[in-house]
């Protein structure tokens, strides 16, 4: 053993002899010992055995002393054995350099994370905040900028915001950024809203100009660019906080659009769809108009994806599924970006969608139906399924739904009588406004039964408004006879 004040933490057995040594000096310079130590941890062995070591005990001692920085003497008697032992142990400059680089990176990551955890009241250095500067130009920000007007803020000018660090950290390349953000999140001192804002800034910094047109670029570099952006997107999604509202619904839908364009995995898209569904009432129509890029799907927009999002929104009233148990073996391995997302499933709470949220989503879905109804390739089944996903109470007025149906019938003049009836069963004529009733009464695209129902309920409404009711029963009988004749 090596005499030291520090107790040994590694045992190496060689030719029935045990060496009580220390990991740091040995593993930092010996590639083979690094591998054996990793295997020993997995198999829970308490020593490393070098069965096929090509040399004597003295040759190993020479290599060990070199690792400890002890002066060694090489001569014609031991140079060959020492060289063979060093090659066996995979001792080379690259090992030491990689270890040094790794330690340097680790120290830098810890330093950056510690800086980000500093309370804003104690920040006494400059930082980047172009968001405040842009807001000031528009007259919407109270924050001051440096005299240069370049977004570099001086702590003396204005109060420091909680997210003062997010733009500076956004300059890191993705793998370093992931490690820094994991360190920051693990500390538990930064709010989930600030973490969400940091991810939003990073996404807009490194995912610029993603649009449908990018799919038509057939250059040789496109595959590499898409792979790089896909890796970046997956990393950002893995870092999303578990808490609802950490990021805006609009931002989540932009990530979902990017995932569709980049051809990301179905699991990644479903993860984003689930998150969007939890706060769908915040979405806008433009956010939902995600292009359909599947060769098997000829529709203009990805209606199936919106249906999935809507299903997740409606499932908030139901009990959430229990997370699958995580085995001990799974946690012995390094946590990957994808496994970071298990926190979202485990910490998600069952928050039912409110009544007002469902009313907002119903209006949003009807607006979406109006938009997609212009698509000549949209199947009836998808139109009906999306419309029926909205509960009756959430759609107190059917005017927008009627408009969507009217446009859909107009764009599909070849529909059979039964197909038109199937579409129009979605309508509740009692929930149409007077203006919509007037339009429907003259709409020759509607089945006669629907027109008759519209006239009947409009007459009933007029009779009740006039304080009467006389003739309503007679009107009902006449209209019923008309419907029977039409059938």
Describe this structure in words.
The chain is mainly alpha-helical and 487 residues long. The chain has 23 helices and 5 strands. It has helices at residues 23-27, 31-43, 57-68, 79-88, 93-116, 130-137, 166-169, 174-187, 192-206, 222-239, 249-262, 266-278, 285-288, 303-314, 328-332, 342-347, 355-372, 380-388, 399-411, 417-424, 434-441, 448-465, 472-486; strands at 10-14, 17-21, 48-49, 127-128, 152-153. A 3-stranded mixed sheet has the order 2-1-3. A two-stranded antiparallel sheet has the order 4-5. It is elongated and about 115 Å long. Mean pLDDT is 80; it is low at 133-150, 211-220 and 319-350.
List keywords for this structure.
55% helix, two-stranded antiparallel sheet, single chain, mainly alpha, 487 residues, three-stranded mixed sheet
Total helix count? 23
What about the largest sheet? 3 strands, mixed
- List the helices and strands in order: EEHHEHHHEHEHHHHHHHHHHHHHHHHH
List the domain count as a whole number.
3
The average pLDDT value, as a whole number, equals: 80
Q: What's the Cα radius of gyration?
A: 34 Å
Give the strand tally: 5
Instruction: Briefly note the structural class of the backbone.
Output: mainly alpha
Q: What is the CA–CA distance across the termini? A: 100 Å
Strand content: under 5%
Note the overall shape: elongated
Major sheet: arrangement of strands: 2-1-3
List the helices and strands and how they pair.
Layout (H helix, E strand, L loop, with lengths): L9 E5 L2 E5 L1 H5 L3 H13 L4 E2 L7 H12 L10 H10 L4 H24 L10 E2 L1 H8 L14 E2 L12 H4 L4 H14 L4 H15 L15 H18 L9 H14 L3 H13 L6 H4 L14 H12 L13 H5 L9 H6 L7 H18 L7 H9 L10 H13 L5 H8 L9 H8 L6 H18 L6 H15 L1
Parallel strand pairs: 1-3
Antiparallel strand pairs: 1-2, 4-5
Helix pairs in contact: 3-4, 5-8, 8-10, 9-10, 10-11, 11-12, 12-14, 17-19, 21-22, 22-23
């Amino acid at each position: 053993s090596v005499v030291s004040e520090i107790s040994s933490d590694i045992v190496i057995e060689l030719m029935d002899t045990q060496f009580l040594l220390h990991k740091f000096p040995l593993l930092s310079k010996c590639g083979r010992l690094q591998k054996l130590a990793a295997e020993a941890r997995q198999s829970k062995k308490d020593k490393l055995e070098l069965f096929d070591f090509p040399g004597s005990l003295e040759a190993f001692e020479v290599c060990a002393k070199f690792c400890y920085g002890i002066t060694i003497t090489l001569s014609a008697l031991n140079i060959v054995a020492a060289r063979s032992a060093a090659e066996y142990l995979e001792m080379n400059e690259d090992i030491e350099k990689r270890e040094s680089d790794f330690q340097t990176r680790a120290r830098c990551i810890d330093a950056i994370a510690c800086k980000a955890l500093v309370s804003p009241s104690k920040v006494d250095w400059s930082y980047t905040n172009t968001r405040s500067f842009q807001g000031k130009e528009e007259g919407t920000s109270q924050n001051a900028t440096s005299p240069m007007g370049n977004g570099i803020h001086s702590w003396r000018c204005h109060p420091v915001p909680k997210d003062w660090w997010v733009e500076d950290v956004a300059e890191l390349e993705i793998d370093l950024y992931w490690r820094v953000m994991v360190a920051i999140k693990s500390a538990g001192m930064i709010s989930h809203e600030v973490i969400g804002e940091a991810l939003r800034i990073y996404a807009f910094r490194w995912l610029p100009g993603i649009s449908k047109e990018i799919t038509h670029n057939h250059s040789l570099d496109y595959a590499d660019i898409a792979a790089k952006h896909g890796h970046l997107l997956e990393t950002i999604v893995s870092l999303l906080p578990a808490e609802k509202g950490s990021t805006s619904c609009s931002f989540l839908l932009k990530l979902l659009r990017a995932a569709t364009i980049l051809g990301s995995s179905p699991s990644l898209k479903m993860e984003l769809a689930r998150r969007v569904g939890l706060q769908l009432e915040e979405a806008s129509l433009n956010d939902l108009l995600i292009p359909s890029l599947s060769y098997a799907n000829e529709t203009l927009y990805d209606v199936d994806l919106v249906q999935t999002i809507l299903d997740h929104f409606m499932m908030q009233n139901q009990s959430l599924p229990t997370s699958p148990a995580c085995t001990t073996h799974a946690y012995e391995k390094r946590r990957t970006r994808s496994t970071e997302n298990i926190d979202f499933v485990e910490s998600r709470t069952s928050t039912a969608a409110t009544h007002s949220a469902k009313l907002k989503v119903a209006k949003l879905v009807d607006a979406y139906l109006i938009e997609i109804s212009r698509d000549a390739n949209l199947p009836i089944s998808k139109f009906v399924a999306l419309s029926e996903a909205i509960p009756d109470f959430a759609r107190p007025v059917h005017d927008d739904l009627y408009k969507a149906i009217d446009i859909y019938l107009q764009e599909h003049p070849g529909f059979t009588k039964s197909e038109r009836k199937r579409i129009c069963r979605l309508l509740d004529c009692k929930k149409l406004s007077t203006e919509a009733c007037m339009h429907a009464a003259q709409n020759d695209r509607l089945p006669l039964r629907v027109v008759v129902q519209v006239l009947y309920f409009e007459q009933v409404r007029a009779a009740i408004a006039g304080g009467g009711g006389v003739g309503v029963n007679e009107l009902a009988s006449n209209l019923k006879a008309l419907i029977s004749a039409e059938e």
